[in-house]
User: What shape does this take?
Amino acid sequence: MMGLDIIAVFLGSLFALLFIGVPIAFALLLVSGVLLFYIGNYDSQLIAQAVTYGANSFTLLAIPFFILAGEIMSFGGISKRIVDFVACLVGHVRGGLGYVVILASVIFAGLSGSAVADAAALGAILIPMMIQMGYDKATSVALVCASALIAPIIPPSVPLILFGVATSTSIGRLFMAGIVPGLILAVALMIFWYFLAKRNRYPVGQRATREEMWRAFKSSVFALIMPVIIVGGIRFGIFTPTEAGCIACVYAFFISIFVYRELRLSDILKIFVSTSKTTGQVLLVAATAMSTAWVVTTAGLPQEVASVLHGFSDSPVLLVLIIAVFLVFLGMVMDSTPAILIFGPIFMPLIQQAGVDPVYFGIIMVLDLMIGLITPPVGTVLFVGCGVGSVKFNDLVKKIWPFILVEFVVLFLYVAIPQIVTIPIKWFM
Assistant: This one.
């Protein structure tokens, strides 16, 4: 059973099931069964126990809380006030609404931690505004989708939570490590948008007066404080990431009901229903993925991968590059949640053996897989963008490729120069 046979059985069965359209959660359960049968240790009770154990994690509780916080912000007017404030700052330059999208994504990232939530919330507000001002519809949607990837990098981040759970890596350190890479990604998108807006001669908005800027700031100040509370509380050890999710929900509810007074009682049921649906989908996949991760570990898959890539362990940069290229293709066909939970534990022993910082690798892996969210054929954020922006999928794909290339450049910059990620960690810890 030594050699490449276990890797072949695992990847072959997984991609075959995904190709024929089996839902990812059920595909993972079937793959677990195939692997256990192959190694001669099949027992359905083992899979059931692994699924239960996978869902039994205190840290995973942070995910539904941050999802709930994102829903509250959408209904409670928090998202709109952030957009209005940013629009006052940069809305007057050429292609100003594009910069609004990117900067709002940075701020919104500190609130929701979800690319899908970011794309849905900001897209619903900004895409109609951009179309009304004469921006190309498909390009506008593409920018919203590309900017949404900032959310899973800047804390709080649902994918970083999943990576921390799967690999026993400090979620607090992961959160702090994501700040600078997320900001660099935003700057890269702004630079690209500058040339795109100049070439296409996108409209120039009206400059806001000092009074308008002050009103927008006063209106949004409570929304802007929220990410500071979350990140600052985690940084100084006041509360854990899971507790931060609870605090985000309470804060969002309080501000939406008593300060902005836009959250109605009739909205609360809608918020909980939407949160429950999203949470159910994420945690079902998470539980089955954790069970698959346990099975592949039992089958000795990490050791097999380590033996295949052992020759590259002397060159950490080359090793990370090879893994990054693999994750690029993986992200095109597999959702990020199972990919993180399954392949994180597989690659981690090899990463540690090569002397690579697990926190640094976590940022690389998450960004790599997040790009898959805007890459066909699985690109979840693309489908959200199509729905929110009422644009055809093929038209969106044509416009989003330049943004994908920009984000790949940023990714491989992090791979080539790890210090971009590793040095800022010391600033925040």
